[in-house]
Specification:
heterodimer; A: mainly alpha; 3 helical TM bundles of succinate and fumarate reductases; B: mainly alpha
Chain lengths: ~140, ~120
């Protein structure tokens, strides 16, 4: 009894958490948090894009030129990179979110479904991010 | 242990997070449907310039829908950010500060977005 009490590792630190090999469903779970937090942080950037793109034709041309010539001290590649991060976070959060709602609504909580839907989420998000990212950076 | 769920649940003043859980899912579905609606209009044939893009949000019914979605986003993000803060930020003072910051951040973003929408 005393031995087991002594063997307890104590509270987990981040460095311990990083040692764990997460199952794919766990990867999707933590990425849901990470993408949500990223979207929260980038929210003003989203509204700025909404603002400049709809307010007037003059602001619209400022919006489009931000992707070509940059805006203020921010170079165009950084604008595109931020948009790429937004694209990934949105797709990841959207797909993983639908997966959550589906699991809640149909009680699909088996280990097998968790893994398969995680593979689908990561695959669909990855593929669409690459396709839209290539378009964004003018590769096709 | 006595049964404490369903009709036998002991009702106390606290709620059990069900309201937040449900609100987060309902707002998520609203935002998902709105995203599809906007995508559908963007993907309509024809050149997508300023007129067509701004025109999408200028219609009164789209303004009302967008307004609902902006509020949904704020509520949804608040529930999510609060979850994250409750899990990772343990000292009460720091957590309170972070929560206040999140509320101010979301309210400010909401105000800005609504302002942009309503002067269209």
């Amino acid at each position: 009894m005393a031995e087991t009490a002594k063997a307890r590792p104590g509270s987990m630190r981040l460095i311990d958490a990083l040692q764990y090999r997460l199952p794919l469903a766990g990867v999707v779970s933590i990425l849901h948090r990470a993408s949500g937090a990223l979207l929260f942080v980038l929210l003003p950037f989203v509204i700025w894009m909404f603002d400049t793109s709809v307010t007037s034709e003059i602001s619209y041309s400022r919006f489009t030129s931000a992707f070509v010539a940059g805006i203020g001290f921010v170079p165009a590649w950084l604008v595109k990179l931020a948009v790429l991060a937004l694209i990934w976070a949105t797709l990841q959060h959207f797909t993983a979110g639908l997966r959550h709602v589906w699991m809640d609504a149909t009680h699909s909580v088996s280990k097998e479904f968790g893994r398969q839907s995680a593979v689908f989420t990561l695959g669909a998000t990855g593929l669409l991010t690459v396709l839209l990212g290539a378009k964004l950076f003018g590769l096709y | 242990m006595t049964q404490n769920f369903g009709t036998k649940r002991v009702v106390v003043g606290a709620h059990y997070g069900l309201r937040d859980w449900l609100a987060q899912r309902v707002t998520a579905l609203l935002m998902a449907l709105f995203t599809l609606l906007v995508l559908l209009q963007v993907l309509m044939p024809g050149e997508l310039g300023y007129d067509r893009w701004a025109g999408i949000f200028a219609a009164q019914w789209m303004k009302v829908l967008s307004f609902v979605v902006i509020l949904s986003l704020a509520l949804h993000a608040w529930v999510g950010v609060r979850d994250i803060l409750m899990d990772y930020v343990k000292p009460v003072g720091a957590r309170l500060l972070a929560q206040v910051f999140a509320i101010v951040w979301l309210l400010a973003c909401t105000g800005w977005a609504v302002q942009v929408l309503w002067r269209l």
